[in-house]
Amino acid sequence: MKKGLxxxxxxxxxxxxxxxxxxFLAIVAIFTLMLLSGLCRVTEPSAATFEVPSATTxxxxxxxxxxxxxxxxxxxxGYSVLMxxxxxxxxxxxxxxxxxxxxxxxxxxxAQPVFRDHIIAGTFVAGLTSLLVGVAMPLALSLSLAxxxxxxxxxxxxxxxxxxxxxxxxxxALAYYALSVFFSTVTGNSVKSLVxxxxxxxxxxxxxxxxxxxxxxxxxxxxxFEQVQMGQMIVxxxxxxxxxxxxxxxxxxxxxxLDYHFRVIQDQLLLGPGIKDYTGLxxxxxxxxxxxIASFTVFVKRxxx
Amino acid sequence: MVPPIKTENLTKVYKLGGKEVRAVDxxxxxxxxxxxxxxxxxxxxxxxxxxxxxxxTVLPTGGRGTVLGYDIVKESxxxxxxxxxxxxxxxxxxxxTAEQNLMxxxxxxxxxxxKESVRECLKLVGLWEYRQxxxxxxxxxxxxxxxxxxxxxxxxxxxxxxxxxxxVDPDGAREFRRLIQELNKQGRTIFISTHLxxxxxxxxxxxxxxxxxxxxxxxxxxxxxxxxxxxQGYVYEVELSEPSQVIIDRICSLNGVKxxxxxxxxxxxxxxxxxxxxxxxxxxxxxxxxxxxxxxxLEDIFRKFSG
Lengths: 305, 307
Ligand SMILES: Nc1ncnc2c1ncn2[C@@H]1O[C@H](COP(=O)(O)OP(=O)(O)O)[C@@H](O)[C@H]1O
Ligand SMILES: [Mg+2]
Fold this sequence. Notes:
The complex is a heterodimer. In chain A, about 75% of the residues lie in helices and about 5% in strands. Chain A is mainly α. In chain A, about 35% of the residues are buried. In chain B, the strands form three sheets. Chain B has a six-stranded mixed sheet, with helices on both faces. In chain B, strands 1, 2, 3, 5 and 6 form a five-stranded antiparallel sheet that branches. The longest helix of chain B is centred in the middle third of the chain and has 16 residues, at about 170-185. The complex binds adenosine-5'-diphosphate and magnesium ion. Magnesium ion binds near residues 47, 48, 88, 162 and 163 of chain B.
């Protein structure tokens, strides 16, 4: 058998095992329900209409008529996705290598005419496929349920937007997945790797945003104010220069997290006419590739224990 | 003819935080064709490391070796294609059935008729009725049998098993002995490592005892017993119908007898060399009912050499 075929054979078996597992089914079910509950909010009557800031009135019209629904959907689920996707990715990735080592599957595979490269390559292929399915299936399921149950009819533009969105979400998931696999490979211990993955997620989603504010205050000192004449009144306003520095620094600090790069892309999509700045996406892809290659190298170099 | 397994000065040194561990230290091993070979040694003696080097999953730091004539470093893939290998602590995919797991491996090996091979092996180890059971729901004994089935898929002329009976109950161990003997009768060479002689010690035709990475003794079990007796003495047990205390002194005066004890009608004689004919003719007048040489057990050999 050819080298690549062996890796694919391992990937096939591995994928079969993953999609049959209770963990996978549970993740898909929970993710689907959360998204669906987010989608239900689309039908809520709201006082404030959804506004699309744009340069020309012409574009606003187009967006409103064509992809309004898609934007509404994204808006409704955006927050859940940002919160949940990292968790799903970590749950899928934390025991990918360590679990196989702990359960002796690596030993059994290595008793056959295969090399360690085949095993980890096969594992990656299966893992990435399962990740894609784990993200795409709940989105597709919840959207079709929404169409059926809530009577929403998306336009072609809506669907296109949502597919783009799905792609971006998949890249975001990939980054967290790759990180989680890396922890799994390096620690060789599922518990440690799960804890590490969850810690990174907590840190970048909750702790760093607040911490960064404190850090910047330490660096820049307390906010400066300036007096502005507004008609009859004199108003105290934060110095725009200070504000600019503050946001710059905060973005610099938060750009250390994966969440930031995803949010930059998500915000662009929410604003309307598509992605203009692909930096965030590239950063996420580069990060994923680098961590996957690192895991590959670590695993291949290691001897049986 | 090349023996199924042969190593020369095979060595593995692990570096752990600046400290060196000589897990396997200059091992010269030769496993004869058709034997049931026991690699014995306490935990940490280096058995698993040696086996992994033979299978090519751990690289030696020194020496060399061949398995079925293939070089363990350059041709390890060929070795793992031909040799049935049951590693220590092996496992399978929990959410796949026994049959699905074996099918996956059969395809990985590239067997021509995977379905047939899987069926045959499941039947051979007695798992055919349980083929639809998920690995995650199997008992220890069933898991062990799946481990053996996995090694048999290749229809191997050499079977290598690392601690195959650890955690298996006595019934399982008996079943295991029967299977190994059957496989051996078919002409397969079998190489088994263990730290427990209990239950499977009786199987071995040949053994090697490992201690701190070195092989301290190896050879055929009968030859080693002979050697041990030559070193420690030959013990004869004689049952007499007319025992008498006076024979003790006279026996002890015989050339080669070190000690003699009479307990009831049982006489025990310890000699420094084989003395059966002399003793028999001497004891003629005392009504010999039974006469036997008590051989040392494998346990005795193991205890003497394993430290
Ligand atoms: N991957 C490894 N790294 C470092 N030391 C190891 C490794 N594998 C085994 N050892 C050490 O080598 C020695 C022999 O271990 P092993 O071959 O597992 O013995 P056995 O199988 O006889 O119990 C032990 O001291 C063990 O700690
Ligand atoms: Mg061992």
